[in-house]
Specification:
Layout (H helix, E strand, L loop, with lengths): L1 H18 L1 H10 L4 H13 L5 H34 L7 H14 L2 H5 L6 H4 L1 H6 L4 H26 L6 H4 L1 H30 L1
Helix pairs in contact: 1-2, 2-4, 3-4, 3-9, 4-9
């Protein structure tokens, strides 16, 4: 079973390699395999001189935006009924949607940025954003701002690891935790600022 999975993964990565920059974009847009692996492999292609670092990062951001626009559209035009009926085909579990909805209702639009650094939530948070009809320009801006450092990090790591790029999950563990903590810290700072602003207006 594991050999079959590895063969399937190898085929997908070869497909990305054959398509070059388009492969990076499509690989992230459909995210059949985790974005960290696609971006790290893009970094490996940078290491081999087949793609350039800046364009690989740009392609990573474009691919992420395409995926999130699709999920936003599902939330906006299909709503919860669509997700409940067809979510399983997109690997969207109802419990994850429930959590994302609560996060969005509680924390507002800023959660679109911070949730991009949380596994699973970085995909499903787009659905309640669409359901709430969040302004598309703001949604796109926050998604892009979160996708840029994510893309830079994993393309850089893939480039640095070179032929050992496939160890990305173990090598990036501490960094991902640090990024997650930083994102949560930013969220806390946002709420502190909001609290003091409201308190100042009430005086």
């Amino acid at each position: 079973m594991m050999d079959t999975i590895h063969q399937w993964l190898d085929q997908l990565l070869l497909w990305i390699e054959d398509l070059g920059y388009w492969g990076i974009i499509i690989g992230l847009a459909i995210e059949v395999i985790p974005s960290e692996i696609v971006l790290a492999y893009a970094g490996y292609l940078v290491f081999r001189g087949e793609v350039s670092f800046p364009v690989a990062v740009i392609c990573g951001v474009i691919g992420a935006l395409l995926q999130q626009w699709l999920l936003y559209a599902i939330g906006r035009y299909g709503g919860r009924p669509f997700v409940d009926k067809f979510g399983k085909y997109l690997h969207l579990k109802p419990k994850h949607i429930d959590i994302a909805e609560r996060w969005f209702e509680k924390h507002g639009t800023i959660i679109v940025f911070t949730a991009r650094f949380v596994p699973v939530m970085r995909q499903v948070i787009s659905i309640p954003a669409g359901m709430a009809r969040m302004k598309l320009s703001l949604y796109t801006l926050l998604t892009a701002l979160a996708s840029i450092p994510w893309s830079i990090l994993f393309v850089y790591l893939g480039n640095e690891l070179g032929n050992k790029w496939d160890t990305i999950e173990s090598e990036s563990g501490d960094l991902v935790i640090w990024i997650l903590c930083s994102a949560l810290g930013l969220l806390c700072l946002y709420f502190v600022v909001q609290y003091w602003r409201k308190r100042g207006k009430n005086k």
